[in-house]
Structures are given as structure tokens and as C-alpha cells.
């Protein structure tokens, strides 16, 4: 098998001018004072080879250098001197879907615009046009401006164009999870086909499960260095170790910095703990989650309550929110520092990361119960839940499946009860 | 590194030109008529003022002024569109590796299209005035435009890179263009002896823009003498300039994504 990518001693340094010179005045003054230049070694001495037909996963934390590596292979960034990067064949980077989409143009026009940007010719796009439109399921809307499309439609169109590019190497930056489940199934077929055709794929993710599922091998990158290049299962274990180590290093820095210390009643810190009340931030599903909240009380106030909300990683959705007012918990505040414990004994989170927000509020009298806040804090680091199974969604709910006779019996019984 | 066929480069060029042409006048009532309205409005104002003040001895002063305005509008577009071409496509450059020079050429072709629309109207006016247009004149005209385009691309190879690093180059070029409007005989003529200072007069006379503007006028039989040999020299110099500026560009452009 021939090599598609051969990388040897790849390093990349970014120079950040602490006083960024974007105007002539700054450039001029910096001729005289050298200015401070910060060097960032984003990647150092990375070496690996990818053979034709291999699916390679690249995993690492945010800021580990994954994206920079991809951009160098995609010929967007230039590697430092002394690095050797050899790519044989045509590369199509899906670093972002729909590059160059123009929202004023119609779907049809965007197919040609985006397609040519990705390196296809107009005549090739003409022959693939129907295939693209059908795959995107946009036959009725193709002559509408894409600004009228929903985000799902846009992503479908972009993906359908991108997969037509006949490349030898595809670089994918976490885009397998686009669209609804039906579209995801279709895209999974596409990737299976790519594999059959002997195409190579570089797949970047911090979701190790998908990497295990589709990749032959994986590269683990941490702090700009290649930690390992191995079977995805082993890389997965190493990756989890790295995350755990990092979390244990910084166990108590949960309170978001930059929050102005308010006089009066305030939240001092929030700590995630395990059953032994030791700090912990990564939980297996089912393992109880304990929260210790340190509160400073200047003014005793029996009408002060505490709320805890859990947000998803994108901070879009409240997974749950509980508070001591609704739960009718009776506080016994004392002047000075107070400790409050909250336990989620039935931890049914699915694999994922969550943010926790704690607030201190006073319950106003009156029917509409407006809350008057003393303080509100968000944990800086997320709470992480692992589970070995592959369940989708944020939460796992107790459930039961039934089919055919079983269901009929239940319906009959419940009817008989009435 | 990435193999992209030249057929694709041409298609990409066409798509980019088409898109920016469509986008430029999107959501405006008069649409692409603005290509005509702007220079003609400028012409009208200047004509009303200067035809009364200067009383130029130039025959066909109206056409003289109009060609001057169209010329300087074109130069202005070449410079501004060229220097902004990389910065404006930053979102694509950061995600896909396509031949970067296409972004520059596409922007400048946009300027040429605008010029051509204006020239078609001028040709009508010239014919209506009873001035004859000969085939050699048309060839001369095309040569003038080609030379300006080549110099424009050469300039853009340098300015587009520099603009990414030094953002206020845009203002510097705008200021330069403003001064150029007076440093080239758009609304006055050097024949009129309006400029007493002989040094300044010399400076204006040998301003390369003056030379090219007068060659454009000569091609349309509006003013001055055609000088074919001069054009060939400027063309050769332009090609040399293009070569060296491309060397600079291709070296610098590899790092450009880091500077956005």
C-alpha cells in the first residue's frame, strides 16, 4: 500500500506579538522597541504515516494541537522549517461544512460555488447535480436562496456537496454528527463506501466512541506532542487517563474567576465529590454525584435559598434545576461560612459533560415569586460522566420495551382494573 | 501539495466573479445600474463646475472629462478590490486550500467588467458625437486595459498580503488615490497652461497614470496621440513587475492564514 501521508518531525510555532501590529503606527513604533513576542509551540516533532485506505482518528483535548495538525496537512498553515509533510493525492478538508456558502444565492448556485471551492469542476458538478440534490433531500427548495433554509437543510446540502469531491484523503473535523438520525444513517453509509473504495480518512474528535467505531488506528495528541499512535481501544484508555489526570490536578478551582466579590452573602466555592466526600469530577453513570457548596453569610436571613442548575456542555439547555425554596428545605444559616451539601443519588446522566450553576436568592413574597439574587456562580470546569454503553441523549430514563402479546395483556389488565 | 486541475481553477474563478458581481448590488433597487450611475454622476457634477470655470481649449471637453472619470474610477477599483481580495475571502482561505491567486484575479476581473459596461456607453456617445472609431483604436483600447490589469494584479499581489498585516494600508491607498485625482489631468488639460509651476507640470506629465489615461483617450479618438511603442514598453515592464510581485506573493501567501 502506498503512503497517503508521511509526516516527519512536524513542528509548528506561532509567534504572538503581545502588542499585535495591525496598524502602521504600531508597526512603526515596534521598529524601535522590539516588542514582546510570545512563542507558542503548538506542535512539536510529530511523525506518522497513513497508508491508502486507512481510517485514522485523531483525539486530544481542546487546544492540544489537533486542528493545527489538520490545517497543516490540508495546506492551510505552513509547518516550521525542518518539518517534512508529504501528501500524495488530492485532499479535501471538511474543516467546516459549506465553506463559502453565500446566503443570498440559491441552493443551486451554492452547489457550484462551494463545489468549485472544494476543487470540483463545473462539468463534474453538472453530472453530479441530481445526486447532490437528492441526497440532501432538497429537491423542492433548490432554487430558493439558502437564507431561507433551516440550519439542518444547510448542513445537509453542504455535506452532500462535500462527499462528491473525489479525493484520496478526506479530513473530517467532527462532522459525522450532522443532521437528524435518518441523515446520519445515510452519511454512515457514505463513509462505509469510502472505506470500500480505498479512500483514506483523518477523523478528528474528542468523542472517543465514534473513533473506536470507525477508525483503524488513532493518534493521541496532548500539549502539541504525539503521545501514541495505536489501536483506537488503547488510545481511548490513554485519553481517559489524560482527562482524569488533568482534572485531579485542578480539583478545587471550580469557582469561576473574574466574578466580583460581592459584599454580603455569597458563594465561596463549589466542589464535586464522590461518596467518600473526596473531590472528584468524573463519574461513571449510576455513581452518585455529591456537591459541596461553601457559602459566606454576612447577614443572617432565613428567607435566603439556594438553587442548583445543570446545563449541557454547550450551555444551551437546562438539564435540570432544583432549589431549596421549592423543595421546602429549612436552612439554618449562621454568620460566617456555611457548608451546604446536595446529592444526586440517582445519577442517570449519559456520557457527556455538564456545567453546574449555583445561585443564592431571596424569595420575594407575592404570588408570582420573583427571585432577588444575592449571588450566582457557574463552575468553571465541567462535570464529566462516562459510561461504556452507547446511549444517545443527555439523560437515561428508566424504561421498559414491550411487543405484541405482552402489550395486549397489559392493556387488557388495565381495562379489567377499571 | 494539493493537486487541483487548471480546469477547476477557471471554474472557480468564474464562480467567484459571478458571486461578487451578484452580491455587489444585491438588495439595491437600481441593482447593477449603480456601476453606471456613480461615475456618470461624478462626471455631471464635474462637468457643470469645470466647463464653466476652466473653459478648456480641449475639443470634446465632455468626452475628455468622462473618459478621465471612468479611467480613474477603474484604477481606484483595481487598487481597492485588489488589496482587499485576500482579507475578504479570509473565511474560505482559513478552511480550504485553493490557489490563492484566484481570489485576487477574481476581484480584479470584477473591476474590468465594470469598466467594460462603462466603455460600451462611452462608445455610443463617441459615435453619436460623430467621432469615428477605427479597429486599431479598439485594439489599442484592449491593450491599454490589459496593461492596467496586469499592473493591477501585480500591485494586488503585494498590497493584498500587506493589508492583512497592516490594516491601515487601506486608508493609505485611499488617500493616495484622492491625491492622484488631482495629479492626473482628469478635468483639466496640460495644454491649457493652467499650471504655472513647471516642476509640478512635469510631474503630472510623466505621471504613469497620465500617460495611460491619455492613451485610453487616444484609443477612442477623444484626445492626444496614440503611442503603440510606449504601450509595448509599459506592457513588458508590467510583465516583469508581475513576475517579481508573484514571487513575493507565493512566498508570503503560505503564511497568510496565520495572520487573519
Automatic annotation (TrEMBL), chain A:
<dbReference type="GO" id="GO:0016020">
    <property type="term" value="C:membrane"/>
</dbReference>
<dbReference type="InterPro" id="IPR003439">
    <property type="entry name" value="ABC_transporter-like_ATP-bd"/>
</dbReference>
<dbReference type="InterPro" id="IPR050683">
    <property type="entry name" value="Bact_Polysacc_Export_ATP-bd"/>
</dbReference>
<dbReference type="InterPro" id="IPR015860">
    <property type="entry name" value="ABC_transpr_TagH-like"/>
</dbReference>
<dbReference type="GO" id="GO:0140359">
    <property type="term" value="F:ABC-type transporter activity"/>
</dbReference>
<keyword id="KW-0813">Transport</keyword>
<keyword id="KW-0067">ATP-binding</keyword>
<dbReference type="InterPro" id="IPR027417">
    <property type="entry name" value="P-loop_NTPase"/>
</dbReference>
<dbReference type="InterPro" id="IPR017871">
    <property type="entry name" value="ABC_transporter-like_CS"/>
</dbReference>
<keyword id="KW-0547">Nucleotide-binding</keyword>
<comment type="similarity">
    <text>Belongs to the ABC transporter superfamily.</text>
</comment>
<dbReference type="GO" id="GO:0016887">
    <property type="term" value="F:ATP hydrolysis activity"/>
</dbReference>
<dbReference type="GO" id="GO:0005524">
    <property type="term" value="F:ATP binding"/>
</dbReference>
<dbReference type="InterPro" id="IPR003593">
    <property type="entry name" value="AAA+_ATPase"/>
</dbReference>
<protein>
    <submittedName>
        <fullName>ABC transporter ATP-binding protein</fullName>
    </submittedName>
</protein>
<dbReference type="InterPro" id="IPR029439">
    <property type="entry name" value="Wzt_C"/>
</dbReference>
<dbReference type="Pfam" id="PF00005">
    <property type="entry name" value="ABC_tran"/>
</dbReference>
<feature type="domain" description="ABC transporter">
    <location>
        <begin position="5"/>
        <end position="248"/>
    </location>
</feature>
Automatic annotation (TrEMBL), chain B:
<feature type="transmembrane region" description="Helical">
    <location>
        <begin position="61"/>
        <end position="81"/>
    </location>
</feature>
<keyword id="KW-1003">Cell membrane</keyword>
<keyword id="KW-0472">Membrane</keyword>
<dbReference type="InterPro" id="IPR013525">
    <property type="entry name" value="ABC2_TM"/>
</dbReference>
<keyword id="KW-0997">Cell inner membrane</keyword>
<dbReference type="InterPro" id="IPR047817">
    <property type="entry name" value="ABC2_TM_bact-type"/>
</dbReference>
<feature type="domain" description="ABC transmembrane type-2">
    <location>
        <begin position="30"/>
        <end position="252"/>
    </location>
</feature>
<comment type="similarity">
    <text>Belongs to the ABC-2 integral membrane protein family.</text>
</comment>
<dbReference type="GO" id="GO:0140359">
    <property type="term" value="F:ABC-type transporter activity"/>
</dbReference>
<dbReference type="Pfam" id="PF01061">
    <property type="entry name" value="ABC2_membrane"/>
</dbReference>
<dbReference type="GO" id="GO:0005886">
    <property type="term" value="C:plasma membrane"/>
</dbReference>
<dbReference type="GO" id="GO:0015920">
    <property type="term" value="P:lipopolysaccharide transport"/>
</dbReference>
<feature type="transmembrane region" description="Helical">
    <location>
        <begin position="171"/>
        <end position="190"/>
    </location>
</feature>
<keyword id="KW-1133">Transmembrane helix</keyword>
<feature type="transmembrane region" description="Helical">
    <location>
        <begin position="29"/>
        <end position="49"/>
    </location>
</feature>
<keyword id="KW-0812">Transmembrane</keyword>
<protein>
    <recommendedName>
        <fullName>Transport permease protein</fullName>
    </recommendedName>
</protein>
<keyword id="KW-0813">Transport</keyword>
<feature type="transmembrane region" description="Helical">
    <location>
        <begin position="101"/>
        <end position="126"/>
    </location>
</feature>
<feature type="transmembrane region" description="Helical">
    <location>
        <begin position="228"/>
        <end position="249"/>
    </location>
</feature>
<feature type="transmembrane region" description="Helical">
    <location>
        <begin position="138"/>
        <end position="164"/>
    </location>
</feature>
